[in-house]
Amino acid sequence: KIKDCKTFGDAIKACFSEHDHEMITNEGIKDGSTATVVLFDNGNLYTANCGDSRAILVRKNGTCCALTQDHKLDLESEREVVLRIARERGQNPEPEIVNRRGTWRTLAGDRRRGLAVSRSFGDREFKNSNHGLTCYPYCTMSSLTEEHVACVLASDGLWDVVTEEEVGEAIVMALEKYPILSPRYLAEELCRMALLRHSQDNITVVVILINHNNSSSF
């Protein structure tokens, strides 16, 4: 039973670690993945993320609250985490972290294109070489109120070209105009918005409506 954020955090960390191990030990899987997870329980919203997929909570007035934290090497704090963990694991020499055309990446083995994230599932070539990459999640708990209308989860294909503020405004405006819109329609509209702005990455969007007709819907 989920009692608080620590209980959720402990459970999700164990789950993430188990899934990461399954991917690393599967020789048929070389690549990796990010993850964002949400759990609604007794008026609370628990969130966990690993990598650069993101979740936000949208209010009635269109403003948003970030529920996740990007794990990207563009952040100096994340670069420091990768280097510190690599040292603790005894990696010598230290991971090669470079800035290519404005994007920080870490390199390993044949993956010379590198990774821009500092945490992920899989990516066995990095983790099997005692690299500083981890699957350690960032966890939060938020209390839901009548002011909250939606929770949006999406991959960086959306967030690279559409701001959180634009997502919040788009959802609120659509619901005010067409109250019976389905979450699927809203998610598809956000995908179209990203495509029209020529997003260069994969686009995955999930919209969860909250307090909409007295229920949560996906």
Automatic annotation (TrEMBL):
MF terms (GO), sorted A to Z: protein serine/threonine phosphatase activity
SUPFAM superfamilies in the cross-refs: PP2C-like (SSF81606)
PPM-type phosphatase domain ranges (all copies): 1-210
InterPro entries membership: PP2C, PPM-type-like_dom_sf, PPM-type_phosphatase-like_dom
CDD domains, sorted: PP2Cc
A Pfam family that the UniProt record links to this protein: PP2C
PANTHER family: PROTEIN PHOSPHATASE
Record-given protein name: PPM-type phosphatase domain-containing protein
Organism of origin: Perkinsus chesapeaki (Clam parasite)
Lineage of producing organism: Eukaryota, Sar, Alveolata, Perkinsozoa, Perkinsea
